[in-house]
């Protein structure tokens, strides 16, 4: 800091900003801390700042400001600290009251040059080294750069498969299952699709209209806790598409013994409403007496695929959340479909 304040003070003097120069010379003397000089050679600047030189410059600044007494006091102190031959200008300034006296400053061409030891750390170092192929499925594949896509393209060309990506896209679009119309129940039965059987017993669907055929699973549905139910929310089996649900209604798929029963309940239905509808549906579908409240056990799957007993409204909200709902508020915790397992 001393050399910086010292040299800036000289610049202010040259520009006749004497008040600013005086402040910088004061700061330089403050940071010298009564030392005779500071040698900057050890840090790369070949120059020594002497206390007598700073005091001499400040004395000339005082002369310019009209403070001759302060100037003479600085020159008197500086003369006691003379260390080199060039400091002879201090005595001349005392005799001439600072007339025609030059300023001490850092000589022209003296610049900061860092030591060789510090420059070593600026050299470029290759920490990773050169990549080398250790093993490859293809003996010709020895590429070690980061242009994998270009190499893959060249490989496809050499194998006569240029444009393979667009070809694969066209193959996927032409064979997409969404482009295939759904099969009728009779066609599925004729083709022997596994897991589907057709019964001609009249039944009533969820919309209250009669149908001539119902679908039931075969063999028996797995018990809750089986992981094959983990992704049933998005499943499409044998060309069947997911049936749309009613507006503001939730489709509940109930596994009961070896049967699967579907029913519709309002999306904002309470736990007691759900339990009552399941109980009534089981009684009508199985030709059995309606199970009592204590006898009917309802279960759902949690995030670990384990069966959890549903006993109250909180369990019902959790079941909907695991099915894709949002538990932030009751209004947002609604789902289109819910899968449950019941037993008595």
3D structure, described in words:
The protein has 344 residues and is an alpha+beta fold. The protein has eleven helices and eleven strands. A five-stranded mixed β-sheet has the order 8-7-11-9-10, covered by helices on one side. A two-stranded antiparallel ribbon has the order 1-2. Strand 9 and strand 10 form a beta hairpin. Helix 4 (68-79) runs antiparallel to helix 5. The longest helix is centred in the last third of the chain and has 16 residues, at 271-286.
Query: Got a strand count?
Result: 11
Helix-strand string: HHEEHHHHHHHEEEEEEHEEHE
Radius of gyration: 47 Å
Strand coverage percent:
5-15%
Oligomer: single chain
Shape, per Cα inertia axes: elongated
Given helix and strand content, the structural type is alpha+beta
The main β sheet shows up as: 5 strands, mixed
**How widely separated are the two ends?**
89 Å
Whole-number mean pLDDT: 75
In helices, the fraction of residues equals 25-40%
Low-pLDDT parts are 162-180, 193-221, 225-240
Strand line-up across the major sheet: 8-7-11-9-10
């Amino acid at each position: 800091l001393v050399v910086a304040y010292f040299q800036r003070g000289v610049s202010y003097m040259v520009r006749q900003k004497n008040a600013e120069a005086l402040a910088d010379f004061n700061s330089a003397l403050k940071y010298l801390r009564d030392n005779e000089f500071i040698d900057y050679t050890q840090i790369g600047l070949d120059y020594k700042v002497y206390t007598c030189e700073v005091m001499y410059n400040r004395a000339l600044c005082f002369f310019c400001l009209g403070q001759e007494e302060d100037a003479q006091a600085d020159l008197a102190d500086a003369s006691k600290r003379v260390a080199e031959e060039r400091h002879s200008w201090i005595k001349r300034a005392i005799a001439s009251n600072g007339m025609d006296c030059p300023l001490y400053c850092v000589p022209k061409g003296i610049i900061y040059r860092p030591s060789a030891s510090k420059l070593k750390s600026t050299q470029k170092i290759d920490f990773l080294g050169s990549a080398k192929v250790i093993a490859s499925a293809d003996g010709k594949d020895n590429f070690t750069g980061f242009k994998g896509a270009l190499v893959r393209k060249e490989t496809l060309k050499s194998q006569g498969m240029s444009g393979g990506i667009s070809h694969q896209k066209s193959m996927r679009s032409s064979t997409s299952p969404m482009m295939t119309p759904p099969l009728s129940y009779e066609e599925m039965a004729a083709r022997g699709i596994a897991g589907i059987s057709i019964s001609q017993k009249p039944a009533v669907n969820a919309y209250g209209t009669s149908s001539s055929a119902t679908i039931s699973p075969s063999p028996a549905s797995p018990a809750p806790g089986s992981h094959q139910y983990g992704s049933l929310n998005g499943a499409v089996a044998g060309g069947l598409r997911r049936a749309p649900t009613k507006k503001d209604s939730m489709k509940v798929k109930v596994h009961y013994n070896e049967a699967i029963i579907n029913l519709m309940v309002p999306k904002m239905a309470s736990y007691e409403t759900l339990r009552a509808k399941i109980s009534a549906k089981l009684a009508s579908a199985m030709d059995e007496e309606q199970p009592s409240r204590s006898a009917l056990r309802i279960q759902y799957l949690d995030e670990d695929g384990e069966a959890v007993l549903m006993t109250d409204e909180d369990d019902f909200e959790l079941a909907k959340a695991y099915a894709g709902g949002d538990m932030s508020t009751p209004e947002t915790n609604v789902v289109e479909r819910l899968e449950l397992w019941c037993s008595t």
